[in-house]
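hiii, so i know i said id send this last week but things got crazy w the move. better late than never?? heres the sequnce for the chain we talked about at the cafe, plus the structure i predicted for it. fair warning i was half asleep when i ran it
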Amino acid sequence: MTRRERLMATLRGEAVDRPAVSFYEVGGWTPDPDDPDPFNVYNAPDWRPLLDLAEAETDLIRMCPPTLTPAADNCRDDFFRHETTLDSGSRYTRTTVAVGGRTLTSLARRDPDVATSWTLEHLLKDLDDVRAYLEIPDEAFHYDGDVAPLVARERELGDAGIVMVDVEDPICTVASLFSMSDYTVIAMTESRLFHALLEKHARAIHARCEQIARDFPGHLWRLVGSEYASEPYLPPRLYEEYVVRYTGPMVTSIQRHGGFARIHSHGRLKHILPHIAAMGADGLDPVEPPPQGDVLLSDVRRAYGQDMVLFGNIEAADLENLPPADFQKKVEQALREGTAGPGRGFVLMPSACPYGRTVAPETLENYKTLVRLAKAYRLRRNP
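okay and structure toks below
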C-alpha cells in the first residue's frame, strides 16, 4: 500500500498491510531547516536527520490550519491591537482590546531556543473583563476559509500521506483567554457567563467548520480543546456541557461532508470517553499511557476501538528519555494493544515532539525504532 492508501484505509476501518506510523508534529509541521531566523529551532543541525526520517519513512499526516481571511463585515481591527517587540533576545507580543469602557491586555513571550510561546498575562482576568469582552460584536470573529492552500498541500504530498485540517474548538478558544486558575473557577461557578463566551465563539467557529468541510470534503480533521474540560481541571459532567454541546456540531459538519473528526485530548480520559463516543468521533489522540493518562490502550481499544481510530500511546517523555532497549518494549506493547481484537484502526504515534534545538542521539534512535517496528508488524484484519 502507499502511505496515503494505508492512512485512508485506516480511517475507513478497512484492512491494511501494517499499522501506520506518524511522528505527529515532526512531519506534521513542515519547518524550513534552512531558514536562518533565530527563532527557528529547526535550523539546528540536530533536527535535519529527524525531519528527513519523517519525510522518507513515516505515514505523513500534514497538520494544516485553514487559511482564514477577514469576512467583508469583519470589524476586528476596531477592537484588537497587536504589538511585537524584542527584549533581551526574546520576542514579546502584546494584545490590547478596547471594549465596554475597559482595556483588556495580554502578553506572550517566545524565546529563540524553544519552539513554543508562554502567555505571561491572559486577556480576561475577572468577571468585568468577561462582560466587556462579550460586548465585542460577533462580526469581529467572522472569517472566510480558503481551502486552496489545503488542496495545494495535498497535491504536493501525493501518495506520501494525507492532509489533516487542524482547528481549535470553542472551549479551546475560550479557555485560553484565562489563566488556568481563573478558567477553572469561572467555568465551575459562572456557567451562564461561560456559556455566553462559548456561544459567541461557537457561532463563528461552527460556520467556518461547515464551510471548510463542504469545500474540502472527505478529509481528516483534528479538533483541539477537549483536555481543557477533562479531569483534574473540570468534572466530567461539565465535559458534556462545555465540549459535547459545542464540539459535537463540528463533528457532525465534518462527517456530513465525508470527513473524519479526530478529538485531541491529553491526560485523563477514563470519565470523558463515553462523552467523546457520544459525539460520534472518528478518532482520538494521543491516548497517553499511565501515569500521564489514566487508561490502558487495550481497554480503550476493547470498549471504543470499533468506532474510533486510536492514535498515539507513545509518551513524548519516554521518546526523549528512555534508553533504546527500554523504549522498544514500550513500542512493542503499544503495537500489541493498539491492534488487538476487533477495531477500526491504530496509528502508532508519540504524544508530542522535542521543542528545543537539541535532538539527542538516543532520541533519534527511538524515532527510528517507531518506524522499524511499525514496518515489521504484520497484522490482523481490520474488521
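btw The chain has two domains: 3-74+138-376, 76-136. thought thatd interest u
miss u guys!!
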